[in-house]
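Handover notes (outgoing to incoming on-call)

Open items:
1. Cytochrome bc1 complex Rieske iron-sulfur subunit: sequence verified, structure written out, both below. Nothing else pending on this one.
2. Nothing else urgent.
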Amino acid sequence: MSNEDMSEANLPSEREHAHHGAVEPVGDPFADPGLPPHEPRRQDIDERTARRSERTVALLFTLSMVATVGFIASYVIFPIGKIVYIFPFGHVSALNFALGLTLGVALFAIGAGAVHWARTLMSDEEVPDERHAIEATPEVREKVFADFRQGVKESQFGRRRLIRTTMMGALSLVPLSGIVLLRDLGPLPEKKLRTTAWRAGMRLINQNTNEPLRPEDIGVGSLTFAKPEGLSEDDENFQNVIAKAALMIVRLNPQDIKDKRELEWSHQGIVAYSKICTHVGCPISLYEQQTHHVLCPCHQSTFDLSDGGRVIFGPAGHALPQLRISVNAQGYLEALGDFEEPVGPSFWERG
Ligand code: FES
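Cytochrome bc1 complex Rieske iron-sulfur subunit C-alpha coordinates:
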Protein backbone atom coordinates (compact mmCIF):
# COMPACT_ATOMS: atom_id res chain seq x y z
CA MET A 1 0.00 0.00 0.00
CA SER A 2 1.43 3.40 -0.95
CA ASN A 3 1.73 6.35 1.49
CA GLU A 4 -1.12 8.07 -0.33
CA ASP A 5 -3.32 4.99 0.08
CA MET A 6 -2.46 4.76 3.81
CA SER A 7 -3.32 8.41 4.51
CA GLU A 8 -6.63 7.96 2.80
CA ALA A 9 -7.26 4.78 4.78
CA ASN A 10 -6.59 6.72 8.04
CA LEU A 11 -9.23 9.35 7.21
CA PRO A 12 -12.35 7.33 6.38
CA SER A 13 -14.82 9.68 7.93
CA GLU A 14 -13.47 12.78 6.16
CA ARG A 15 -13.50 10.89 2.89
CA GLU A 16 -17.03 9.70 3.47
CA HIS A 17 -18.16 13.28 4.04
CA ALA A 18 -16.13 14.80 1.21
CA HIS A 19 -18.33 16.33 -1.40
CA HIS A 20 -16.90 18.10 -4.45
CA GLY A 21 -13.54 18.76 -2.65
CA ALA A 22 -15.08 20.20 0.61
CA VAL A 23 -14.66 18.39 3.94
CA GLU A 24 -17.79 18.30 6.03
CA PRO A 25 -17.46 18.30 9.86
CA VAL A 26 -17.96 15.02 11.63
CA GLY A 27 -20.73 14.90 14.24
CA ASP A 28 -19.93 15.25 18.00
CA PRO A 29 -18.72 11.76 19.02
CA PHE A 30 -19.72 12.43 22.67
CA ALA A 31 -23.45 12.57 23.09
CA ASP A 32 -24.79 14.95 25.74
CA PRO A 33 -25.82 12.60 28.56
CA GLY A 34 -28.19 15.23 29.90
CA LEU A 35 -28.93 15.88 33.55
CA PRO A 36 -30.02 13.10 35.86
CA PRO A 37 -33.57 13.46 37.08
CA HIS A 38 -33.90 15.71 40.10
CA GLU A 39 -34.42 13.92 43.37
CA PRO A 40 -36.14 16.01 46.04
CA ARG A 41 -34.56 16.12 49.48
CA ARG A 42 -36.49 15.46 52.64
CA GLN A 43 -36.64 19.19 53.29
CA ASP A 44 -38.31 19.68 49.90
CA ILE A 45 -41.19 17.39 50.73
CA ASP A 46 -41.43 17.59 54.51
CA GLU A 47 -41.98 21.02 56.07
CA ARG A 48 -41.11 19.73 59.55
CA THR A 49 -37.67 18.62 58.36
CA ALA A 50 -37.25 21.96 56.62
CA ARG A 51 -38.09 23.77 59.85
CA ARG A 52 -35.52 21.67 61.71
CA SER A 53 -32.88 22.70 59.18
CA GLU A 54 -33.96 26.30 59.56
CA ARG A 55 -33.48 26.10 63.32
CA THR A 56 -30.04 24.53 62.88
CA VAL A 57 -28.96 27.38 60.60
CA ALA A 58 -30.36 29.95 63.03
CA LEU A 59 -28.54 28.23 65.90
CA LEU A 60 -25.23 28.49 64.05
CA PHE A 61 -25.74 32.20 63.31
CA THR A 62 -26.70 32.77 66.95
CA LEU A 63 -23.57 30.89 68.05
CA SER A 64 -21.55 33.28 65.87
CA MET A 65 -23.13 36.27 67.61
CA VAL A 66 -22.38 34.83 71.05
CA ALA A 67 -18.77 34.12 70.02
CA THR A 68 -18.32 37.70 68.78
CA VAL A 69 -19.60 39.06 72.07
CA GLY A 70 -17.19 36.66 73.79
CA PHE A 71 -14.35 38.00 71.63
CA ILE A 72 -15.05 41.56 72.76
CA ALA A 73 -15.52 40.47 76.37
CA SER A 74 -12.13 38.67 76.30
CA TYR A 75 -10.40 42.02 75.95
CA VAL A 76 -12.00 43.17 79.18
CA ILE A 77 -11.76 39.91 81.13
CA PHE A 78 -8.21 38.70 80.45
CA PRO A 79 -5.16 40.80 81.37
CA ILE A 80 -2.51 40.90 78.61
CA GLY A 81 0.18 39.08 80.61
CA LYS A 82 -1.96 36.21 81.99
CA ILE A 83 -0.56 32.77 81.08
CA VAL A 84 -2.63 29.60 81.53
CA TYR A 85 -2.07 25.92 80.91
CA ILE A 86 -4.44 24.43 78.32
CA PHE A 87 -4.10 20.84 77.22
CA PRO A 88 -2.72 20.02 74.60
CA PHE A 89 -1.35 23.49 73.81
CA GLY A 90 0.66 23.87 77.02
CA HIS A 91 1.27 27.33 78.52
CA VAL A 92 -0.37 30.00 76.40
CA SER A 93 -1.55 33.59 76.77
CA ALA A 94 -5.12 33.45 78.08
CA LEU A 95 -6.06 36.56 76.10
CA ASN A 96 -4.65 35.29 72.79
CA PHE A 97 -6.26 31.89 73.28
CA ALA A 98 -9.66 33.41 74.05
CA LEU A 99 -9.44 35.80 71.11
CA GLY A 100 -8.44 33.07 68.68
CA LEU A 101 -11.08 30.67 69.93
CA THR A 102 -13.98 33.13 69.91
CA LEU A 103 -13.13 34.72 66.57
CA GLY A 104 -12.63 31.26 65.05
CA VAL A 105 -16.01 30.08 66.32
CA ALA A 106 -17.72 33.30 65.16
CA LEU A 107 -16.40 32.97 61.59
CA PHE A 108 -16.81 29.19 61.44
CA ALA A 109 -20.44 29.37 62.63
CA ILE A 110 -21.32 31.88 59.91
CA GLY A 111 -19.70 29.66 57.26
CA ALA A 112 -21.28 26.47 58.60
CA GLY A 113 -24.70 28.16 58.81
CA ALA A 114 -24.45 29.37 55.22
CA VAL A 115 -23.36 25.94 53.96
CA HIS A 116 -26.11 24.13 55.85
CA TRP A 117 -28.67 26.61 54.55
CA ALA A 118 -27.49 26.09 50.97
CA ARG A 119 -27.42 22.30 51.26
CA THR A 120 -30.75 21.79 52.92
CA LEU A 121 -33.08 24.66 52.10
CA MET A 122 -31.94 26.45 48.95
CA SER A 123 -33.00 24.90 45.67
CA ASP A 124 -30.62 22.15 44.51
CA GLU A 125 -32.20 21.69 41.11
CA GLU A 126 -29.56 21.70 38.36
CA VAL A 127 -30.37 23.66 35.23
CA PRO A 128 -28.21 24.01 32.11
CA ASP A 129 -27.19 27.54 31.23
CA GLU A 130 -26.18 27.97 27.58
CA ARG A 131 -23.13 30.07 26.79
CA HIS A 132 -23.86 33.35 25.15
CA ALA A 133 -22.13 36.48 23.90
CA ILE A 134 -20.20 38.41 26.56
CA GLU A 135 -22.00 41.66 25.81
CA ALA A 136 -25.29 41.52 27.58
CA THR A 137 -28.39 42.64 25.72
CA PRO A 138 -31.24 44.32 27.59
CA GLU A 139 -33.14 41.03 27.41
CA VAL A 140 -30.20 39.17 28.97
CA ARG A 141 -29.88 41.72 31.72
CA GLU A 142 -33.56 41.41 32.38
CA LYS A 143 -33.09 37.64 32.52
CA VAL A 144 -30.22 38.02 35.01
CA PHE A 145 -32.40 40.13 37.27
CA ALA A 146 -35.22 37.65 36.87
CA ASP A 147 -32.83 34.79 37.73
CA PHE A 148 -31.61 36.76 40.73
CA ARG A 149 -35.15 37.29 41.93
CA GLN A 150 -35.83 33.64 41.34
CA GLY A 151 -32.67 32.74 43.29
CA VAL A 152 -33.75 34.93 46.19
CA LYS A 153 -37.11 33.21 46.12
CA GLU A 154 -35.59 29.75 45.97
CA SER A 155 -33.13 30.54 48.77
CA GLN A 156 -36.22 31.21 50.90
CA PHE A 157 -34.46 34.36 52.16
CA GLY A 158 -37.73 36.22 52.30
CA ARG A 159 -39.71 33.37 53.73
CA ARG A 160 -37.32 32.13 56.43
CA ARG A 161 -37.49 35.07 58.78
CA LEU A 162 -35.56 33.34 61.58
CA ILE A 163 -32.58 32.67 59.31
CA ARG A 164 -32.72 36.17 57.86
CA THR A 165 -32.73 37.82 61.27
CA THR A 166 -29.99 35.72 62.82
CA MET A 167 -27.79 35.95 59.71
CA MET A 168 -28.11 39.74 59.72
CA GLY A 169 -27.21 39.75 63.41
CA ALA A 170 -24.16 37.52 62.90
CA LEU A 171 -22.90 39.48 59.89
CA SER A 172 -23.34 42.82 61.60
CA LEU A 173 -21.61 41.73 64.80
CA VAL A 174 -18.55 40.05 63.26
CA PRO A 175 -16.97 43.33 62.00
CA LEU A 176 -16.93 44.57 65.61
CA SER A 177 -14.04 42.15 66.20
CA GLY A 178 -11.92 44.23 63.80
CA ILE A 179 -12.70 47.41 65.71
CA VAL A 180 -11.70 45.82 68.99
CA LEU A 181 -8.41 44.70 67.42
CA LEU A 182 -7.44 48.39 67.10
CA ARG A 183 -6.52 48.13 70.76
CA ASP A 184 -3.47 46.13 69.69
CA LEU A 185 -2.05 49.28 68.10
CA GLY A 186 -0.89 50.17 71.61
CA PRO A 187 -1.85 52.73 74.23
CA LEU A 188 -3.25 56.10 73.19
CA PRO A 189 -0.59 58.84 73.08
CA GLU A 190 -2.86 61.12 75.17
CA LYS A 191 -0.87 64.34 75.83
CA LYS A 192 2.58 62.78 75.51
CA LEU A 193 3.19 64.33 72.08
CA ARG A 194 2.23 67.79 73.29
CA THR A 195 4.30 67.96 76.46
CA THR A 196 7.95 67.51 77.42
CA ALA A 197 9.77 66.85 80.69
CA TRP A 198 10.33 70.53 81.40
CA ARG A 199 8.60 71.89 84.51
CA ALA A 200 8.74 75.17 86.38
CA GLY A 201 11.81 75.38 88.63
CA MET A 202 13.71 72.61 86.80
CA ARG A 203 17.36 73.56 86.31
CA LEU A 204 19.05 73.46 82.90
CA ILE A 205 21.81 70.82 82.91
CA ASN A 206 24.76 71.01 80.50
CA GLN A 207 24.46 67.88 78.39
CA ASN A 208 28.24 67.49 78.08
CA THR A 209 29.33 68.10 81.67
CA ASN A 210 26.11 67.10 83.48
CA GLU A 211 26.51 70.27 85.58
CA PRO A 212 23.72 72.80 86.18
CA LEU A 213 24.22 75.86 84.02
CA ARG A 214 24.85 79.38 85.33
CA PRO A 215 24.49 82.44 83.11
CA GLU A 216 28.24 83.09 83.34
CA ASP A 217 28.94 79.64 81.83
CA ILE A 218 27.47 80.78 78.52
CA GLY A 219 29.52 83.18 76.46
CA VAL A 220 28.19 85.41 73.71
CA GLY A 221 28.18 83.53 70.41
CA SER A 222 28.51 80.06 71.96
CA LEU A 223 26.01 77.20 71.54
CA THR A 224 25.30 74.93 74.50
CA PHE A 225 23.07 71.88 74.66
CA ALA A 226 21.01 71.27 77.79
CA LYS A 227 18.71 68.65 79.30
CA PRO A 228 16.22 68.75 82.20
CA GLU A 229 17.47 68.31 85.77
CA GLY A 230 17.13 64.75 87.07
CA LEU A 231 17.43 63.10 83.67
CA SER A 232 20.30 60.60 83.43
CA GLU A 233 21.61 58.78 80.39
CA ASP A 234 21.23 55.59 82.42
CA ASP A 235 17.47 56.10 82.68
CA GLU A 236 15.46 53.51 80.79
CA ASN A 237 13.43 56.14 78.94
CA PHE A 238 16.28 58.63 78.48
CA GLN A 239 16.05 58.60 74.68
CA ASN A 240 12.28 59.11 74.70
CA VAL A 241 12.53 62.05 77.09
CA ILE A 242 15.53 63.80 75.53
CA ALA A 243 14.01 63.38 72.06
CA LYS A 244 11.48 66.04 73.04
CA ALA A 245 13.24 67.99 75.79
CA ALA A 246 16.67 68.68 74.20
CA LEU A 247 17.54 72.39 74.34
CA MET A 248 19.88 74.76 72.53
CA ILE A 249 21.16 77.61 74.73
CA VAL A 250 22.59 80.69 73.07
CA ARG A 251 23.61 84.04 74.48
CA LEU A 252 22.80 87.03 72.32
CA ASN A 253 23.29 90.71 72.91
CA PRO A 254 19.86 91.74 74.22
CA GLN A 255 19.80 94.63 71.73
CA ASP A 256 20.14 92.09 68.87
CA ILE A 257 16.91 90.33 69.86
CA LYS A 258 14.18 91.54 67.51
CA ASP A 259 11.23 89.64 68.95
CA LYS A 260 9.64 91.19 72.05
CA ARG A 261 8.37 87.91 73.51
CA GLU A 262 11.74 86.26 72.95
CA LEU A 263 13.40 89.02 74.93
CA GLU A 264 10.90 88.60 77.79
CA TRP A 265 11.45 84.84 77.88
CA SER A 266 15.24 85.14 77.91
CA HIS A 267 17.63 85.99 80.74
CA GLN A 268 20.21 88.68 80.00
CA GLY A 269 20.17 87.69 76.33
CA ILE A 270 20.38 83.94 77.06
CA VAL A 271 17.69 82.18 75.03
CA ALA A 272 16.63 78.52 75.19
CA TYR A 273 15.12 76.91 72.10
CA SER A 274 14.03 73.38 71.28
CA LYS A 275 16.79 71.50 69.50
CA ILE A 276 14.24 69.44 67.53
CA CYS A 277 13.65 70.65 63.98
CA THR A 278 10.02 71.46 63.26
CA HIS A 279 10.24 69.84 59.84
CA VAL A 280 10.57 66.13 60.61
CA GLY A 281 12.42 66.20 63.91
CA CYS A 282 16.17 66.07 63.24
CA PRO A 283 18.39 67.50 65.99
CA ILE A 284 19.65 70.94 64.99
CA SER A 285 23.33 71.47 65.64
CA LEU A 286 24.84 74.10 63.33
CA TYR A 287 24.98 77.66 64.67
CA GLU A 288 26.21 80.68 62.80
CA GLN A 289 27.03 83.28 65.46
CA GLN A 290 27.29 86.35 63.18
CA THR A 291 23.76 85.94 61.82
CA HIS A 292 22.28 84.05 64.85
CA HIS A 293 20.99 81.44 62.42
CA VAL A 294 20.78 77.73 63.22
CA LEU A 295 20.73 75.21 60.40
CA CYS A 296 19.14 71.75 60.40
CA PRO A 297 21.54 69.36 58.63
CA CYS A 298 18.76 67.10 57.33
CA HIS A 299 16.98 69.37 54.83
CA GLN A 300 18.63 72.72 55.47
CA SER A 301 15.81 74.44 57.31
CA THR A 302 17.26 77.61 58.79
CA PHE A 303 15.91 79.42 61.86
CA ASP A 304 16.70 82.89 63.16
CA LEU A 305 17.32 82.71 66.91
CA SER A 306 17.31 86.50 67.20
CA ASP A 307 13.80 86.68 65.80
CA GLY A 308 11.68 84.21 67.75
CA GLY A 309 13.23 81.14 66.02
CA ARG A 310 11.45 82.15 62.79
CA VAL A 311 11.98 79.95 59.70
CA ILE A 312 13.97 81.89 57.14
CA PHE A 313 14.73 79.04 54.74
CA GLY A 314 13.79 75.41 54.07
CA PRO A 315 10.81 73.11 54.49
CA ALA A 316 10.17 73.54 58.24
CA GLY A 317 6.56 74.52 58.89
CA HIS A 318 6.90 76.83 61.88
CA ALA A 319 9.29 78.56 64.25
CA LEU A 320 11.34 76.70 66.83
CA PRO A 321 9.54 76.59 70.21
CA GLN A 322 11.23 78.71 72.86
CA LEU A 323 11.47 77.72 76.55
CA ARG A 324 10.90 80.46 79.08
CA ILE A 325 13.87 80.64 81.45
CA SER A 326 15.12 82.61 84.43
CA VAL A 327 17.71 82.30 87.20
CA ASN A 328 16.89 80.80 90.60
CA ALA A 329 18.00 82.02 94.03
CA GLN A 330 21.21 80.00 93.81
CA GLY A 331 22.12 81.61 90.48
CA TYR A 332 21.34 78.62 88.22
CA LEU A 333 19.36 78.83 84.99
CA GLU A 334 15.93 77.26 85.40
CA ALA A 335 12.82 76.70 83.31
CA LEU A 336 9.68 78.64 84.13
CA GLY A 337 7.44 75.87 82.77
CA ASP A 338 7.07 73.55 79.81
CA PHE A 339 7.10 74.67 76.16
CA GLU A 340 3.86 76.42 75.31
CA GLU A 341 3.51 74.54 72.01
CA PRO A 342 4.38 71.02 70.82
CA VAL A 343 8.02 70.56 69.87
CA GLY A 344 9.14 68.82 66.71
CA PRO A 345 7.33 68.20 63.43
CA SER A 346 4.57 70.64 62.62
CA PHE A 347 1.97 67.96 61.93
CA TRP A 348 1.45 67.35 65.66
CA GLU A 349 -0.31 70.71 65.80
CA ARG A 350 -2.97 69.61 63.36
CA GLY A 351 -4.60 67.14 65.76
S1 FES B 1 14.28 67.72 59.59
FE1 FES B 1 15.14 69.67 59.68
S2 FES B 1 14.91 70.42 57.72
FE2 FES B 1 14.03 68.47 57.61
